[in-house]
Amino acid sequence: VAKLESYGVAAAYLQSDITDVSRHEETVTGILSRFGRVDCLVSNASMAVVPGDFLDLVPADFDKTIAMDLRGTVFFTLAVVKAMLVRGAADVPRSIINITSVSPEVSSPERADYCISKAELAAFYQAVAFR
Known about the structure:
The protein is mainly α. The chain has one domain: NAD(P)-binding Rossmann-like Domain (Rossmann fold). It has 4 helices and 2 strands. The protein has a two-stranded parallel ribbon. Helix 2 runs parallel beside helix 3 and helix 3 packs parallel to helix 4. GO terms for molecular function: oxidoreductase activity. Belongs to the short-chain dehydrogenases/reductases (SDR) family.
């Protein structure tokens, strides 16, 4: 952030629990209060997955991975995109940068829940791009 600000760019780094979907609007409202609009979202939410045979995967572990890597990311992105479309001027470039992994293309039986979440997220961001 300091490096961007040294170039005269207004920037902020925000850290929050992306799995808490009920707080997404509050976060976006805070951004809009500070900057007036949202020009860019850098999305890189993820969590470390304990490797193991996917046949031993239990619902609680799967749900935890999906809550962060997919559900939280999808709904936060939707909140940001809506703010970009409502608040942004038509001539202001806006972008979403999704930092993910090769897991949608190169799956691993030891990290099936992670690979599933990333493949679904890749499909979601394609839909966002088309919209």
